Amino acid sequence: LDDPAGNSFIESIGTSDTRLSKTLYERTREQLQEMGYNVPQANDTHTAATAAPPPPKHGADLPDHLRAANWDFSKSIEDNIDKRREEEESGNIGRDEALFFEVDCHHCGTKGRQDMCAIDIPGFRECLVMAFNCPHCGVRNNEVKAAGAIGDKARRWTLRVTDPEDLNRDVLKSDSAAVRIPEIDFEMQQGTQGSAFTTVEGLIGKIADHLQESNPFTGDSSAQNELSAFTQTIDDLRKLCSDPSCLPFTLVLDDAADHSFIGRRHPERPQEDDPGLTSEVREQSMGC
Fold this sequence. Notes:
This protein is of the alpha+beta class. Helix content is 21%, strand content 24%. The chain has 2 domains: 64-146, Single Sheet (N-terminal domain of TfIIb), CATH 2.20.25.420; 154-282, Jelly Rolls (Sandwich). Mean pLDDT is 79; it is low at 57-69 and 92-96.
């Protein structure tokens, strides 16, 4: 299997499988183009080197028509999008505050509506909210992505969850973030699940639901011991949020792009008043 996207998998038998090997490599220009990336031409390097540096910008580099205001974090993304549509149709907000366009539905192939706007997450940065709705088959999904450039270094967030109040902390997990919970020996690599803006409790619940609904290795052909271990992992994830005896535990977000975030208990107080949350930067590495 040679997958430039890195999204393929072959199961390993035991901890040391001498017949199975995995190699990470740099993508070629042709592979990047096939995956849809904008690859600069050879003469662009000289142009970029000699061009004057752009003026410094504050916040995310977003066009005005993607900037939005008055986002209600107490409501779901779909409800916020629906509210903005109603306000837009009634003329209460300008047309340049949100962007929407038609895209093909990934489920039925007909045209659906993709909405996009920007929100400010307190203590973090501007993020893009994207919500898709297909009027033909009813498919709806949403995604939150941090705006701006990829960070110069990777960032690791570590939260010690000691009481139910920690479960209500805001969390932005990007699709480039790996998730670890050492107490239950759980690790989810980057790219396994899409991005989400939720709470600690909501993130753990989404991970458990995703594993239960989308994992292709839990069918009737799976070995019983592996299926039992996988089911136990899902049960352990759900107990973290429902069983007080599972406290405390540690949640780690390791993001190579520095696009993830865990909120403080009291954002108005200094970081020193929140010893359960730490953030550290590290050098990026291939496959991190």
